[in-house]
Amino acid sequence: MHIGIPKETRDGETRVAATPETVKKYVGGKHTVVVERGAGTAARYLDEAYEAAGATLGTAQDALGAELVMKVRAPSAAELPQMKSGSVVIGMLDPFDAEGIQQMAAAGLTGFALEAAPRITRAQSLDVLSSQANLAGYKAVLLAAHHYGRLIPMMMTAAGTLKAARAVVLGTGVAGLQAIATAKRLGAVVEASDVRPAAREQVESLGAKFIDVPFETDEEREIAQGTGGYARPMPPAWMARQAALVSERCKQADIVITTALIPGRPAPTLVSAETVAAMKPGSVLVDLAVERGGNCPLSEKGLVVEKHGVTIIGLTNLPGLVATDASALYARNIQDFLKLIINADGALAIQRDDEIVAACLVCEGGNVARRN
Ligand code: NAD
């Protein structure tokens, strides 16, 4: 197949969907690859490295006009007209954005949104949500440490002892668990909360304390199990008890990292404005859910703001701040997915009955794929 790697055009997007490493594999596997000049520069992958891996360099039009286009973000309104009807696009295409998917369908594209892959063992190596959330969790703690005007570890010095920072992590999926691990490595005392009961063991195995919000009804217990590993919205009574406990823990904390998400819905509010007002001056809150409305109503998308003496970090695209590694992992995710839609001769052969392929397919033949 003829594969195109365009430069990402979304504001602040530094990642690229293929690296010289994966390009070399594609070229070795009977594909031809055209990389837009400068596509990898922001992620520190230079044009010469792509050429050395066997790609040709071209324009945006050359890359977007390929039979198979690898993207980080969904094609923009300016990119869509440059793509060929009947071509395949793989990327983080935002499967819940009905309008965006409709536009890709109308352009005649076959679209695979990798965020929609099921959370099953076989899908782990192509799981873009995990590969990127893991880095976001890591970077969130480093950002918090940078903005926190004190040290994280306990330190005994000749001039006196400094206390270890207290960190609270809310939502302990992939990003939250990595945030816990990173905060622990830096020497913080960490507490964490999640709605899914399975999270407790994972939190404790990382050496953090689980903030337990007891279930009072069978309904609460049942909803908390989630669906397919994902959380569901909890009843208001449970949310109110969680808010009270979280508020107590946040008042003691120096660093709060929030990562709670519910697929296809706005992020739940976990840290209220009143809680922020009661937090210690100089403390830092990183809201990783900001793109989906935020876990804190005071966080502002794309900004670092100070409210009631608390620094609130609402930066989006934290994986883009570690673009070299984020791209390397993302590119390998795509490479792994390709095996499900390409045959041994390098021709398109979409395995439609494969549950991963079926889940990721968002549009084909002018139609939006039916979502379950
Ligand atoms: P996510 O990004 O969708 O959500 C982050 C976390 O927020 C989740 O742990 C969720 O339970 C939590 N959350 C939601 N509402 C909350 C609330 N009110 N209070 C506290 N926490 C709340 O999660 P994710 O990182 O994408 O992981 C989702 C699931 O998928 C997890 O069970 C994870 O273990 C699983 N997973 C499986 C695989 C695999 O087997 N291939 C790979 C990655 C993740």
Automatic annotation (TrEMBL):
Instruction: Name one process (GO BP) from the record.
Output: NADPH regeneration
Q: EC number(s)? A: 7.1.1.1
Domain Alanine dehydrogenase/pyridine nucleotide transhydrogenase NAD(H)-binding intervals: 145-314
- Keyword set, alphabetical order: NAD, NADP, Nucleotide-binding, Translocase
Which residue range or ranges hold the Alanine dehydrogenase/pyridine nucleotide transhydrogenase N-terminal domain? 4-136
Q: Which InterPro entries match?
A: AlaDH/PNT_N, AlaDH/PNT_NAD(H)-bd, NAD(P)-bd_dom_sf
EC main class here is translocase
Establish whether keyword 4Fe-4S is in the entry: no
Catalytic activity line of the entry = NAD(+) + NADPH + H(+)(in) = NADH + NADP(+) + H(+)(out)
Query: One of this protein's Pfam families, by short name?
Result: AlaDh_PNT_C
Q: Which GO terms describe its cellular component?
A: plasma membrane
GO MF entry, a single one = NADP binding
SUPFAM superfamilies this protein is in? Formate/glycerate dehydrogenase catalytic domain-like, NAD(P)-binding Rossmann-fold domains
Q: Which family does it belong to?
A: Belongs to the AlaDH/PNT family.
UniProt function note: The transhydrogenation between NADH and NADP is coupled to respiration and ATP hydrolysis and functions as a proton pump across the membrane.
Stated name of the protein: NAD(P) transhydrogenase subunit alpha part 1
**Which organism's genome codes for this protein?**
Achromobacter insolitus
